[in-house]
Amino acid sequence: MKNAMLCLIVLAILSAPVFGGAVDLAKSSGVQGGLIVHVGCGDGDETAKLLLDQRYLVHGLDASAANVAAARKTIMAAG
User: Fold this and answer.
1) Other C-beta atoms lying within 10 Å of the C-beta of residue 65
2) What stretches of the chain show up as alpha helix (H) in DSSP?
């Protein structure tokens, strides 16, 4: 069951632009915690918002080293 929820969140985040945003999709998914993997995290702005509460662990992934550096700064600044 936990693996199914994890898979749901990963697939949902990948599809988020179709649904209006990763944060809205994560909130409306009904999942109450777990690992969120934000693939293609860019500057990390949306990734930082995905940490809905302490029941979630959020990882942002991006192929660009510059985006990863920017995401780290954004997430560190968000606290």
Assistant:
1) 8
2) 2-19, 22-28, 45-49, 65-78
